[in-house]
Design a protein that fits this description.
434 Repressor (Amino-terminal Domain), mainly alpha, elongated, 2 domains
Length: about 140
Amino acid sequence: MGEDTGSIRESQWLGERLRVEHLSLRQAGVRTGLSHATIADLLNGDHPSPKTIRKLTRAFRGKGRQRLVLEDRLLTLAGYRTPRPEGEEISEGLARLLDKVSEFSEPGMEMIVRFADLLFPLFTSFSLGGGRRPPY
């Protein structure tokens, strides 16, 4: 796979994690659930899939907001997400929501999207209607 600036930075991040935590390729593979060959390929600049990025962030940052911030950064570097404006991070509420839905199946995710589509007009009308908050 072609090497781009995103994959270079991703491989540098991964290489640094392995050095800091004194992990071999095999140890990193066990920790992440990826093969040691995949870890080596990533270190050599191969472009990771979103699923691979999620495995890496779970292995090296655990759960919660810190992991989601790292996952967002790596997905952006890999070109799967658009960059956020300078200084903008994932909010605590969005991080909790992403934690909850990250393991949903595709049909479950579609149901959540439809539910959000139903809620959006309600929240919009409350925010435009004199600053009142919704009753929930």
